Amino acid sequence: MTTVAIGLLFPFLGTVLGSAFVFFMKDTMPERVQKSLLGFASGVMVAASVWSLLIPAMDMGEVEGAWSVFPAAVGFLLGMGFLLLVDEMTPHLHLGTSQPEGPRSKLSHTAMLALAVTIHNLPEGMAVGVVFAGADQGAAGISLASAVAVSLGIAIQNIPEGAIISMPMRVEGNSRWRSFAIGSLSGAVEPVGGLAVILLASLLTPILPYMLSFAAGAMFYVVVEELIPEASSGKHTNLSTIGFAIGFVLMMVLDVVMG
Q: What is the pTM of this model?
């Protein structure tokens, strides 16, 4: 139980650590650094989705052969669709933009930016929760060590993500402490979401392959819709590509070595 509790908190602590960068950096983050961190975060999320979620989902399929991919395919599409729906129904503001998305709202830019980040963090928390639930139930291809690897990988990814959040908050005119607090709290949804999945694990056992691939689809949505477009616009896009490669390989190695 202690391992599970620590595993759920790892990603949140990564966000807190990254948000603390606002105390040590200038008011604006260098574009080269931001591009590198966005690429790194994308690489970690893609690798975690493939090795820790989609492949185990296919290994757990009750049917063999070509149809074993069915739960993974359905869950993946549902995860993408769910985040698309949340994106459309929630007023939010993305990094580096001034035009809000979603329904019209009187929320401040700071609040909408925080909502955008919360949307990003939701699937990560679900991913951590579902792999720990799978490990607890002895699901094929998921061990406690591999679940910890997913948690650690997302925590590492959240360090640059926390910095990417808190620094624009500071640029928006917030104090360093307020920027740190908002950046940190944006990651609070992760342990909450993960814990909710674990508590419902006994009810979710029959659909665990769908839940694994659902989390993968949700994370892919964040990568394709938000992270990669931001990393690939403007200058220094080659740094985001390098960051993606490093993040992908790091997460892949963590999953294989610890799994």
A: 0.83
